[in-house]
From TrEMBL:
One of its GO terms (molecular function) is hydrolase activity. Keywords: Hydrolase. It comes from the Bacteria. Residues 27-132 form the Serine aminopeptidase S33 domain. The lineage of its organism: Bacteria, Pseudomonadati, Pseudomonadota, Betaproteobacteria, Burkholderiales. This is Alpha/beta fold hydrolase. Transmembrane segments: none annotated.
Amino acid sequence: MIVDFDVAYDGHVLKGDQYVGADSNRLLYLHGAGASTRRGHHLLRGALQQRGIGSTCFDCIGHGDTGGALAQSSVASRTRQAQAVVAARGVPEPLAIVGASMGAYNAVRMTQSHRVDALVLIVPGVYTPSAYEVPFGPEFSAVIRRERSWSDSDAWNILSRFEGRLLVIAAEHDATIPLEIPERLVVAATRAQSSRLHVVQGAEHNRLWSLLEEDPVAFAAAVDMVAETLK
């Protein structure tokens, strides 16, 4: 069962849905930037639902069914949008969070405001603190396009305090996220109950789960890895 919902936020209506799970419904799923929407993550969410794990996901401002202009949002706003959805939908804590691309950084930031005992970061992006509150647009792009702008991210320090289970999934041929970022995220999580890096061979930034789907055995193994982290 999939339940659609609306959440009012700062003059907008965040459009989302819950894939209802038979065993657990504490998973928050955060999509990425660009043209990303919640609907682009149906493969993993559907496979998790089949394993009893429900998920709540929404289209951030400027994306998908929520619409609006990206300039009305920022990385920080995305975190606050996620907090609003968790509160409005009563997603139970401790949360489990899956974050893809930019959503991975929002997932890390959510550990500062909520009890989180499981993080799955997929092709994860991280950002310099100076970019956090900058509205999306030319100024934001200028900040993050500086050479290695992500190197002074606060993600490393935040993750060093995380005590739950961490799984980082990277794409072998990711032209957007250098492998150094997922590697460093795993290394930073020194207090984590468990931490693991899985690199999907042949995958690209925007073609990971669809590639895995072509090999049912590899797809099932990757989903099982995610489910084991989340449960």
